[in-house]
Amino acid sequence: MPGRLPPPGASACPRLSPRPEYGPAWHYLMRAAVRLLRFPLLCTVFHILTERGYAKAYVRFASLMPHTPFRMWWAQPDDLFFTIGLSLSISVVWLLENGFFMLCDRYSLLQQYKLRRVPSMQPSASLVRTTLLNSALSHLIIGPALMLLVVGPALRHLALARALPSPVLPETLPSWTTTWLNFTVAFFINEVIFYFGHRLLHWKPLYRTIHKQHHSYVGTRSFAAEYAHPVEDVLTAYIPFLLGIVLMNAHFHFVFCWFFCKLTETYESHSGYCFAGSWLHWFGLTNSSIAAHHDFHHTRNQGNFGWEILDYLCGTMDEWVRLGGRDGYISQLRAKAGDK
């Protein structure tokens, strides 16, 4: 018989009684090590492949700026370049990835990898419209304003204060080893802060007033990743995404690549698709385990607050372990949906 759990959602410590056996620590440590190596490595490769494009874009931008009447007391032309570049990075990955998953849903493509849904898990049309409108507002107005007036100037002024090279010039791009190390640090900081920030939001008072908005999606869609209360955005998006960047005084190109790659993972983890067993999975080019792990968090709303190793260390994935992890969860979804 399964143990008893607290009510879904409003619990930062959702533990069964009796508790299941989590299994050997090395199993989780190995998976954590693979992810800690894999993600920064993929980001570094992407960074290297796009360096030439960044350099060309900056040279072109610099040649146009003398003819552009852009002058502000706080923001400078380099901050405008940062805003345009980061906005494009975010918008491109949003359109590509969300467009891909929307096409899969619309035309029933790759349904063998779809995490099955029962009717009660489907979002309403009004919720989808609200989410897309919020995304447009964030991507077109709020985000660019923060980039232009806060993030870009902060990175530039921090570099000056620390007597470090300019974070915008192509000739100050770091070596691949420094880039890989920076991605590793940024990834680690992001995962740790996200886990504890997300778990805090499942404390009953904060869940009801803040985090419940994000859990309006029971069966998630990729574009639902950004549907959240502003306080949640600060705790689980802005601070985790930006803290590592600020601490390392990251180059602008690093920031563009970091957001592009991390959002790719974020959208996939909310997509409702798990590509385990596909050739993409075997080549390490998809986030299958993360997608199932976070999908469980939405459909069952019992634990699985973030990076699996932290859920293991803090004991916050009892129900996930009882079900048998990724494979057990997928099997249960198929059974509930009536799949043969």
Automatic annotation (TrEMBL):
Cellular component GO terms held in the UniProt record: membrane
An example Gene Ontology biological process: lipid biosynthetic process
GO terms for MF: iron ion binding; oxidoreductase activity
Subcellular location: Membrane
Pfam families: FA_hydroxylase
InterPro entries in alphabetical order: Fatty_acid_hydroxylase, Sterol_Desaturase_Related
Stretches assigned to the Fatty acid hydroxylase domain: 184-316
Bilayer-crossing regions: 80-103, 136-155, 176-197, 237-261
Taxonomy, superkingdom: Eukaryota
Name this polypeptide is given: Fatty acid hydroxylase domain-containing protein
